[in-house]
Amino acid sequence: MTAEDFQDFRVLLTGVYDFYGKVLSEFALSVWWQAMRPFDLSAVREALSRHVVNPDTGQYLPKPADAIRMLGGSTADSALLAWSKVNKAMRCVGPHQSVAFDDCLIHRVIEDMGGWIALGRKTEHEWPFVANEFQTRYRGYAMRSARPKYPPHLAGIAESANRIGGFASEPSIRLFGDKRKARQILNGTVETIDGPRLEKRQLEAI
User: Fold this and answer.
1) Which residues on adjacent β-strands are paired with residue 100?
2) To 5 degrees, how large is the angle CA 45–CA 49–CA 54?
3) Which helix (H) or strand (E) holds 173?
4) How far apart are CA 147 and CA 40, in angstroms?
């Protein structure tokens, strides 16, 4: 989620607390917001809806850990969706073109794997293994409720060559996914977070 989703998220969570006869405090809201930031608002809404109707746990007010548990399947879906964007971009423009995606975790994971250019050097034989590594890394970040630092875009061969040659021209960057979100990431307006760091006694008070 982005800062623009905060009000909709507040309304959603307030409704959930009202359903259980509870009042949402500012502290609880801040903990929830930090924990849910790595996920899409629609995925969070779906996870909370599933919790409410769960015959085993639905009678209890959900905590962030409950939502993240419900989001386990969603993180797998998100990782698969993220990889489909990467795969499409690589096959459309290849490693020569610099790219920016609408998901900052894509940038972080590809950077961890050596960068866009290195990814483009993989063979078709290696590609299924690359896909598995990407999705595993992506899910690892998502399940830790973290949005780590990320490069605003992924440099391609042309941009890298221009840098080495001392050319100062602006790189041509292709956007993939939601163009508005991709521009936010490109402009560095998506915050990085490390996830909540709260003591157990604080969490139990929520």
Assistant:
1) 175
2) 145
3) strand 173-176
4) 12
pLDDT tens-digit map of 17-49:
999 999 999 999 999 999 888 778 888 998 899
- The answer to whether 2 touches 190, Cβ cutoff 8 Å, is yes
Instruction: State how far the Cα of 16 lies from the Cα of 199, in Å rounded to an integer.
Output: 24
What whole-number distance in Å separates Cα of residue 37 and Cα of residue 146? 8
Cα–Cα–Cα angle for 120, 177, 117, rounded to 5 degrees: 15
Nearest CA to 173 out of 190, 158, 189, 188 is that of 158
pLDDT exceeds 90 at position 16: yes
Distances in whole angstroms, Cα of residue 168 to Cα of each of 9, 38, 89, 164, 186: 42, 34, 25, 10, 18
d(CA 182, CA 68): 25
What's the pLDDT tens digit per position in 99-110?
999 999 999 999
Answer whether 38's CB lies under 8 Å from 146's CB.
yes
Whether the predicted model's global pTM rises above the 0.85 cut: no
**Inter-axis angle of helices 26-36 and 6-19, nearest 10:** 120
**Given a cut of 50, is residue 195 above it in pLDDT?**
no
